[in-house]
Amino acid sequence: MENTEKKIIFSGIQPTGTFTLGNYIGAISNWAKLQEEYNCIYSIVDMHAITVKQEPAKLRQHTIEAYALIMACGVDPNKSIAFIQSHNTNHAEANWILSCSTQFGELSRMTQFKAKSEKHPDDINAGLFTYPVLMAGDILLYNADLVPIGADQKQHLELARNVAQRFNQKYSETFKIPEPYIPDVGARVMSLADPTKKMSKSDENQNGCIYILDDKDTIVRKFKKAVTDSEAKVRYAQGKDGINNLMTIYSVVTGKSFDEIEREFDGKGYGDFKVAVGEAVADHLEPVRTKFAEYMSDKAYIKECYTKGAEAARRISSKVLRKAYKKVGFVID
Ligand code: TYM
What we know:
Elements: E1 8-13, H1 21-33, E2 39-44, H2 46-49, H3 56-72, E3 81-84, H4 90-99, H5 104-108, H6 111-119, H7 126-140, E4 146-148, H8 154-171, E5 179-181, H9 216-224, H10 241-254, H11 258-264, H12 270-296, H13 299-328
Parallel strand pairs: 1-2, 2-3, 4-5
């Protein structure tokens, strides 16, 4: 890492349980690919996770698992910086500085805040509201050029850009303005049970959500139950949300174009198609499951990696934070 000519990538994922196929296709599968061309910094964002209620012991376990999972998906801690967010307190400090350049009104417009408040009416805490500011700090602390995310995080990235621009206008050029990196295919993987909704861990119908550690039988079974339509023709078209979603998933895991997929299943029914998608996904994820088990059997190695990652993250972000402290007028030496 730290080839100064390469552009910088930052991204994060919450350790709230095993990643979904949506997390994988929309974001994580790209993290590994980007490592050759960019200086990549990836974080397990445990501080974001506590904006909704977590069981402490489970959060700790999920954080380690999430770290092992990103490695199993190809993130190499020797090529990239991979760290646990709470190990770098600069994120909490940046959050405060940036909060003072963020408007109440703009945070009120965040669709994810509205959705989560509706879902947890008994715990609409301030952290849930200011969450996008913490996320802005994550990105801005590393002068990231690009942020690989799924479509659901686009509004938060837009806010990060606005906050950075506002700070720069107020105090002079300090933060780099990041660009989103959203895949053309797979930016929004939908629930298999209701293809008008995003695939999510919190889906009430667990048949709608594929977890990347699900075994082959489970994956194929869930795909067999996927909601489709009555046309019985595999083609990508408006109004065919279920089939469009399955074609997207199949395209990402096999590398086939939509035209190729339509030809492959010409004259075949949805039953055959669903099984083919399920098997392709399960085969694609098989090495992830194997590597995850290997990493989890060596916790000392995981610890070594995240400790080294946190040191590197602190080193880079301290410089940017110090610059921001100076700009706002704090006495820094
Ligand atoms: P999180 O943890 O909810 O999701 C991690 C990544 O997975 C993507 N994603 C999806 N992509 C396609 N289809 C889906 N169904 C799907 N579900 C999730 C998300 O878009 C995301 O890229 N706030 C962030 C974490 C974060 C972050 C950051 C990301 C914190 N700081 C800084 C980028 C940069 C979140 O909750 O993602």
